[in-house]
Amino acid sequence: MTQKGYRQRRACALAGLDPRVYRRLPTRPEDADLRARLKELSSERRRFGYRRLHLLLRREGWSLNWKKLYRI
Asked: Matching PANTHER family, A to Z (predicted)?
């Protein structure tokens, strides 16, 4: 793109991409350690739902919203 002197919009049009897709960066951080801990807790406490697991994680010092836990 910079070698040929094309603008971003023109280069995306030639490649068949939408410029918004080209500029978009991932916004969510990876939660690998949280996922691992959540799997451990859910395997220990099979009958606990996301609300109780949220309380257990809060007691361990994790700061997260219950909606995020629900998405995971």
From this structure: BLR2054 PROTEIN (PTHR47515:SF1), LOW CALCIUM RESPONSE LOCUS PROTEIN T (PTHR47515)
53 and 72 inside one domain: yes
The 10s digit of each residue's pLDDT in 49-58 is 888 888 888 9
What would the pLDDT profile of 12-39 be if each residue is shown by its tens digit? 888 888 877 777 677 777 788 888 888 8
Identify the burial level of 64 via C-beta atoms within 10 angstroms of its C-beta, where 0-12 means exposed, 13-18 middle and 19 or more buried. middle
**Tokens standing for 5?**
């002197």
H or E segment and range at residue 71? helix 66-71
Residue with tokens 């220990």: 44
List the structure tokens of 12.
Answer: 């995306």
Element (H, E) at 44: helix 32-44
